[in-house]
Specification:
The chain is α/β, with parallel strands linked by helices. The protein has helices spanning 15-30, 47-58, 69-72, and strands spanning 38-42, 62-67, 87-88, 93-94.
Length: 96
């Protein structure tokens, strides 16, 4: 448990931890991702997807992230600017 950030509403505050937990469980616990594995993350600009990209990279995977063109134009609001940019399926981006 923790304090709600002042810049988030009571409705918005639970989303990041739930999204992060979902991504972690899917990649580490169910997917058993190991260093060097190739991972395709569809919906990389969504709540779970943004965390999935970061977690997969932290686990040493080679990540390909895809999302709709509309979401690839600019990072979603409230996310750090140093996150990898997700791209449309046609323009797959191999993250380094």
């Amino acid at each position: 448990m923790g304090l709600k950030p002042a810049n988030l509403s009571s409705e918005e505050a639970p989303a990041p931890p739930i999204s992060a937990t979902t991504a972690m469980q899917g990649l580490r616990d169910k997917g058993r991702i190991q260093p060097g594995r190739e991972v395709l993350i569809e919906g990389a600009s969504g709540g779970v997807g943004t965390f999935a990209v970061q977690i997969a990279k932290a686990l040493g995977a080679e990540v390909t992230a895809v999302c709709s063109t509309r979401n690839a134009v600019k990072p979603p609001p409230r996310l750090p600017s140093n996150l990898p940019r997700a791209v449309h399926l046609v323009h797959r981006l191999r993250l380094i």
